[in-house]
């Protein structure tokens, strides 16, 4: 199973996160600001990251306060730990509890708190060790370790605990630094990365026991900001920000001695406080290409809750190019909950498609909705074989287009910097249409935007037997419980071939989304779900975590 790199950092007074499954291409976002505190930017406030209870957790200091906050990817809403810190914290998981190490504003000591669920924080401990910069944490040899820079000597030091409460300082190393260290476990050794105080270069030391440090390596990257360490793809990865403070640099090593520089196409501004990186497991999936893509839903089994307040953002990083004669579409494919057994079934619409689609050799894009109803249902699922359909139950279909369209500057290209913001519209918990705003690379909304389709009042192309008029009202509509976003051919089973370009997908709704690899627990589980259109578009792996906002990179394959 592949892993995903997760980076956390402070940018423009907001916590930001970024994901990558290769260390080169990244998807990123500023965490939604419903938790932020007003105030000036705190350049010393690095963040702590951990993977816990199937979510990504982040600990950080407030913007205009010294309060220590915690957020998780399942809601991105902050919780106050009740503690205050003068610099950024560190975070890890030890003995099935989330742990945070921080410099107490009251004592100047490194203190540790813990939580069994990330809500209430107890297990407080004062290590009695002092530092002016953020500590680092790791679990090694069944012990919890902290690396820190001694307040008086600037020496790199470590300490350990069997329980997170009683702490045992080790003799100081012979290395010195003025910025926060980083820590990881690799090749059965404890590794500490730091920026040497005399040379401003990235250095690392390693130990098999935490007492003696016989290994010292100098990869040589210059930086004035704290580094980060993690293990990814069976190698030790280090992140630093170059001496100018402008370019994040990533290196990796399979033996701790020979280092490889990675070209990083990072679409976000570099952090002013350095990066924090962790590695988390990727969600299970098959090949992520064309119509084969993650399927998202709320956690759990049927009956799944409706997905509400659904929003989709697509941002184009590099010109997305494709054959003008067979252009692409962005398809948001969704499915209703498990169908009620009956002949005819009680649901009129189950499979729902909300598509931004183009036409051959045209610069136009429209919003197209294509929704289908079930045929006969046996044991709660649609029968995909036409011979199993009830002849008295004609499948209902809705296929309206938006009244307006937008135009790109030329055929076969969606320019870099363009973005699409589509939100589903609702009547109660049922989807009643969609609206999409489109912006060009200057941030201006383009002519014809927003593209809008409102379903009530439309006429279905095939009448539902219980409603001979075919006019769509609320009784036709259904909630969605599952879906996927794919970049595929424009219509009619066509194939789109991307020849270049990359972009980013961001999906958000209530409740949080879990990525999966099947349509089980929805009305589409028997037929398998998915679309008839295909492409060579590739998608990145995403964390196996609850996501209030699901981020993913997409684009032409590397060989294109």
Layout of helices and strands:
Layout: E1 3-11, E2 14-20, E3 27-30, E4 48-52, E5 55-61, E6 67-72, E7 79-84, E8 90-94, E9 97-103, E10 109-115, E11 122-130, E12 136-140, E13 143-149, E14 156-161, E15 168-169, E16 182-186, E17 189-195, E18 202-207, E19 215-217, E20 228-232, E21 235-241, E22 248-253, E23 260-262, E24 276-281, E25 295-297, E26 308-322, E27 328-335, E28 351-358, E29 364-372, E30 377-378, E31 381-382, E32 397-398, E33 406-407, E34 413-414, E35 419-427, E36 430-439, E37 451-454, E38 482-489, E39 495-496, E40 498-516, E41 534-535, E42 538-539, E43 547-555
Parallel strand pairs: 39-41
Antiparallel strand pairs: 1-2, 1-24, 2-3, 4-5, 5-6, 6-7, 8-9, 9-10, 10-11, 12-13, 13-14, 14-15, 16-17, 17-18, 18-19, 20-21, 21-22, 22-23, 25-38, 25-40, 26-34, 26-35, 26-40, 27-28, 27-38, 28-29, 29-32, 29-33, 30-31, 35-36, 36-37, 40-43, 42-43
Structure write-up:
With about 550 residues, the chain is mainly β. The chain folds into two domains: about 5-280, Neuraminidase (6 Propeller), CATH 2.120.10.80; about 295-555, no CATH class. The protein has no helices and 43 strands. The strands form nine sheets. It has a 15-stranded antiparallel β-sheet that branches. Strands 3-2-1-24 form a four-stranded antiparallel β-sheet, with no helix packed on it. The chain has a four-stranded antiparallel β-sheet with strand order 4-5-6-7, with no helix packed on it. The two termini are about 25 Å apart.
């Amino acid at each position: 199973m592949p892993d995903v790199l997760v980076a956390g950092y402070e940018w423009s007074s907001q916590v930001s996160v970024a994901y990558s499954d290769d260390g080169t291409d990244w998807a990123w976002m500023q965490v939604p600001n419903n938790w932020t505190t007003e105030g000036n930017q705190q350049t010393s406030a690095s963040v702590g990251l951990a993977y816990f209870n199937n979510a990504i957790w982040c600990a950080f200091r407030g913007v205009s306060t010294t309060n220590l906050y915690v957020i998780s990817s399942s809601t991105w809403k902050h919780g106050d730990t009740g503690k205050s810190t003068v610099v950024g914290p560190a975070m890890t998981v030890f003995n099935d509890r989330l742990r945070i190490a921080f410099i107490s504003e009251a004592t100047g000591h490194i203190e540790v708190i813990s939580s069994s669920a990330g809500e209430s924080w107890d297990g407080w401990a004062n290590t009695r060790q002092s530092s002016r910069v953020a500590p680092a944490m790791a679990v090694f040899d069944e012990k919890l370790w902290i690396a820190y820079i001694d307040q008086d000597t600037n020496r790199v030091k470590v300490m350990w605990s069997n329980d997170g409460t009683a702490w045992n300082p080790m003799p100081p190393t012979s290395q010195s630094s003025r910025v926060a260290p980083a820590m990881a476990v690799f090749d059965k050794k404890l590794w500490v990365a730091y920026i040497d105080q005399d040379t401003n270069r990235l250095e690392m030391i390693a130990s098999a026991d935490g007492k003696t440090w016989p290994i010292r390596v100098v990869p040589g990257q210059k930086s004035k900001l704290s580094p980060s360490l993690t293990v990814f793809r069976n190698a030790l990865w280090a992140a630093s920000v170059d001496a100018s403070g402008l370019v994040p640099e990533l290196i990796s090593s399979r033996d701790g001695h020979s280092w490889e520089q990675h070209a990083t196409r990072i679409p976000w501004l570099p952090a002013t406080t350095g990066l924090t990186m962790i590695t988390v497991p990727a969600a299970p999936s098959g090949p992520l290409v064309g119509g084969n893509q993650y399927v998202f839903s709320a956690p759990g089994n049927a009956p799944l809750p409706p997905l509400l307040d659904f929003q989709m953002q697509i941002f184009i990083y590099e010109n997305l190019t494709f054959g003008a004669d067979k252009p692409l579409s962005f398809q948001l494919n969704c499915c209703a909950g498990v169908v009620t057994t009956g002949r005819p079934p009680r649901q009129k619409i189950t499979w729902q498609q909300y598509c931004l689609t183009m036409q051959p050799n045209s610069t136009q894009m429209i919003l197209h909705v294509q929704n289908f109803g079930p045929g006969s249902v046996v044991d709660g699922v649609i029968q995909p074989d036409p011979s199993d359909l009830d002849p008295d139950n004609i499948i209902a279909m809705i296929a309206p287009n938006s009244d307006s369209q937008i135009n790109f500057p030329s055929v076969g290209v969606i320019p870099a910097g363009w973005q699409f913001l589509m939100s589903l519209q609702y009547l109660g918990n049922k989807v009643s249409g969609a609206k999409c705003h489109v912006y060009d690379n200057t941030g201006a909304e383009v002519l014809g935007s927003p593209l809008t389709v409102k379903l009530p009042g439309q006429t279905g192309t095939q009448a539902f037997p219980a409603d001979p008029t075919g006019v769509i009202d609320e009784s036709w509509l259904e909630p969605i419980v599952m879906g996927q976003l794919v970049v595929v051919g424009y219509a009619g089973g066509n194939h789109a071939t991307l020849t270049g370009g990359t972009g980013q997908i961001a999906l958000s709704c209530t409740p949080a989304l879990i990525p999966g690899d099947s349509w089980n627990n929805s009305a589409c589980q028997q037929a398998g779900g998915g679309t008839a259109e295909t492409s060579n578009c590739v998608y990145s792996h995403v964390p196996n975590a609850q996501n209030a906002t699901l981020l993913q990179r997409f684009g032409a394959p590397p060989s294109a």
